[in-house]
Design goal:
Elements: H1 2-30, E1 33-36, H2 37-48, E2 52-54, E3 61-64, H3 74-83, E4 86-91, E5 94-99, H4 100-105, E6 109-111, E7 124-130, H5 136-143, E8 152-156, E9 161-167, H6 168-181, H7 189-199
Parallel strand pairs: 2-5, 6-7
Antiparallel strand pairs: 1-3, 4-5, 7-9, 8-9
Length: 200
């Protein structure tokens, strides 16, 4: 009889602990503004009156703190998508949302000679930047840590140019850094002479 009573107490104790755990989980969830990524994109499309073509693999649960989902702008949506390894690119007036690996492999928007001003912050752009005063190859190891895993950076040595493949937001940041690095010094005379011969 005593063993039966102990068993009953243990069973009820386990239920009580499970109930407390559920209350803790529910309280944490209730403290967050949770929304599915699909619903977030749907609401964003309606609010901004833009067309979104969403890859079926784009699926995640978003937890927001300190910001309402109905107030998210392009820059913040870009950050949310990147956090979950997704991206958004504008194609003929329609925004395509897909895994970053897919956007990287598919056709990209080409921003000529570093001019990415006409593209949205979340758009993936391929940018060719002419380097005038230093070897472009020397900039690659400096800038590579600033390129996300889904992006790429390479140097085309014959014309001393950098090829950037990343979001417009990140491209703008990289261009500012490149401008500060690409300065004339006493150590880059060879680069200036080579560029001069190519222009003749």
């Amino acid at each position: 009889m005593r063993s039966l009573l102990l068993l009953i107490l243990l069973v009820f104790s386990s239920f009580a602990i499970a109930a407390d755990d559920n209350e803790i989980v529910e309280s944490v969830d209730n403290g967050l503004n949770s929304i599915s990524l699909g619903k977030l994109l749907q609401d964003f499309s309606k609010r901004k009156d833009i067309a979104l073509l969403v890859d079926p693999r784009v699926n995640a649960k978003i937890h927001l703190l300190g910001i309402a989902s109905e107030k998210i702008d392009f820059s913040e949506l870009h950050t949310i998508l990147n956090l979950h390894q997704f991206g958004m690119a504008e194609v003929e007036g329609m925004y395509v949302v897909a895994p970053m690996s897919t956007l990287k492999q598919r056709s990209l928007v080409l921003a000529n000679d570093g001019d990415s001003s006409k593209h949205s912050a979340s758009e993936t752009v391929l940018t060719v930047v002419e380097i005038k005063h230093v070897p472009a190859a020397q900039m690659v190891p400096i800038l590579r840590p600033l390129i996300p895993q889904q992006g790429s950076l390479s140097a085309y040595i014959p014309s001393n140019k950098l090829i950037l493949n990343t979001s417009k937001h990140n491209t703008d940041r990289l261009l500012k850094i490149i401008t500060r690095l690409d300065v004339k010094t006493d150590f880059n005379f060879g680069v200036n002479k080579k560029n001069k011969k190519q222009n003749e």
